[in-house]
Amino acid sequence: MIKQKKRGLLIVISAPSGSGKGTIMKQLLQNDSNRWLSISTTSREIRNDDIPGVTYNFVSKNEFIQKISEDYFLEYAMYAGNYYGTPKETIEDKLNNGIDVFLEIEIEGAKNIKKIYPEAVLIFILPPSMTELIDRLRKRATDSEEKILKRLMRSYEEILELNNYDYVVVNDELDNSIKQIEGIMTAEKSRTNRVEEIIFDIEKDNLEDYLGGKGE
Predict the structure, then answer these.
(1) What sign for the dihedral angle of Cα 87, 92, 53, 77?
(2) Number of alpha carbons in the 13 Å side-chain half-sphere of residue 14
(3) Per the CB 3.0–4.6 Å rule, which of 27, 73, 144, 177 could disulfide with 85?
């Protein structure tokens, strides 16, 4: 009998804006009640498609800096002139109770998490192509062409960081992307370093007797 550790997986999901990360996360969380998404805190402005407390917890830059001084964050980073951070609260408790914890964060934050939790699983979501990414950003109708260009430039920079991630999933079709991520989670839970102990129903010293009595 193999006894696996009860501790949950810590999974970091990163992606360029427009890659469909939010839709993927929503589906993953619907599929299993044993999964939990940590909501990041940010100092950026609220956009039209944002839902406070769902997409992010929004605070002012001064409030964010105050939270840093209070040791509120597990990690934080500056991205495009704004702060983004992962609250410490409840993450460790969830993991210890066997809950799989998802962090939806940027690349610098992912690197910081990997330093703190070497066992964390880092997954990068890619769009099928840059052309598809442009189409998705334009369909949002929330950004000017100038802002879209800045997002695309940032996407290229992010893609250069792929070697910092454990896995890459190309989001060309939602169901396939979900299956790939769930396959990654299954494989990670089968790693030898997640096996707590292996118990056999026969002792090594009794192998000859076992074979002699039952092997025929």
Answers:
(1) positive
(2) 25
(3) 73
* 101 backbone φψ class: left, alpha, beta (φ>0; ψ -120 to 50): beta
CA distance 62 to 68: 10
Supply the DSSP symbol for 63. Answer: H
On the question of pLDDT at 180 being above 80, the answer is yes
**What length is written for the chain?**
216
Residue 143's nearest CA partner among 80, 63, 207 is: 80
Question: What is 2-38+99-214's CATH superfamily?
Answer: P-loop containing nucleotide triphosphate hydrolases (3.40.50.300)
43-to-17, 32, 60 alpha-carbon distances in Å? 17, 31, 5
Beta bridge mates, 87: 73
**In the chain, what are the domain boundaries?**
2-38+99-214
Q: In 120-209, where do the E strands start and end?
A: 121-126, 167-170, 195-198
- Distance, in Å, from the CA atom of 100 to the CA atom of 164, rounded to the nearest integer, reads 21
Longest Cα pair distance anywhere in the chain, in angstroms? 79
Residue with tokens 């074979």: 211
pLDDT score of 43: 96
Nearest-angstrom CA–CA distance, 144 and 138: 9
The band of 55, judged by pLDDT with boundaries at 50, 70 and 90, is confident
